[in-house]
Amino acid sequence: MERANVVARHVALTITSAAALFVASASPASASAIGYGKVAGFCFDMRGTQICVPATTIGHFIQGSGRTITRQEASIQDTLGGDTAGGRWCNWRIDWRYSDTDGRTYLTSRGPEHPKCAYVSSLGRIDTTRRTLKHYGKACADFVAGGIRRGTQCHNVID
């Protein structure tokens, strides 16, 4: 059931991204952006064998106008396009982080913690919370697994 929900969210991210490009071109008052960042690979021990997970990507979609954000989505995707998260991720979450134009973080919206390990499945977060940012600067998606920030993707939020 959870895998089906994550796959549905991944498909929704793709469809929403395409729709956002259309909406952004039809309405000059709103803006959207999508970007991808590298998620560092890592190694772990499995029954005495060292297994290394290749790097994956974090995709981040943001929609809004001015300092107002109306939708954010992020997902972790394998480098081969196989609709997986590219490895075994345990205790993971995706946070939204906002910083001003001087790079100072002033707000972090921590995503829900997923305590089970996800292997060969999509990982993602969709948030339709309307936020008006205190400052122009950056809006970032941070992928955290095992208590360590594994990857980040940011968008400039400017006037």
Describe the structure.
The longest helix has 25 residues. The chain is elongated and about 55 Å long. The strands form 4 sheets. Strands 1, 4, 5, 10 and 11 form a 5-stranded antiparallel sheet that branches. It is 16% helix and 52% strand. The protein contains 1 helix and 13 strands, in the order H-E-E-E-E-E-E-E-E-E-E-E-E-E. It has 159 residues and is of the alpha+beta class.
In which range does the helix fraction lie? 10-25%
Question: What coarse outline follows from CA principal-axis ratios?
Answer: elongated
The computed structural class is alpha+beta
The major sheet is characterized as: 5 strands, antiparallel
Beta-sheet strand percentage? over 45%
**How do the helices and strands follow one another from N- to C-terminus?**
HEEEEEEEEEEEEE
Mean pLDDT: 78
Distance between termini?
A: 42 Å
Number of helices: 1
Give the beta-strand count. 13
Query: Which regions have little confidence, pLDDT < 50, spanning 5+ residues?
Result: 1-28
Instruction: Determine Rg (CA atoms, Å).
Output: 16 Å
Summarize, please.
With 159 residues, the protein is α+β, with helices and mostly antiparallel strands. 16% of the residues lie in helices and 52% in strands.
How is the topology of this model organized?
Layout lengths: L1 H25 L4 E9 L2 E5 L2 E5 L2 E10 L2 E10 L10 E2 L2 E9 L4 E5 L8 E2 L3 E5 L3 E2 L4 E9 L2 E10 L2
Antiparallel strand pairs: 1-4, 2-3, 4-5, 5-10, 5-11, 6-9, 7-8, 7-12, 12-13
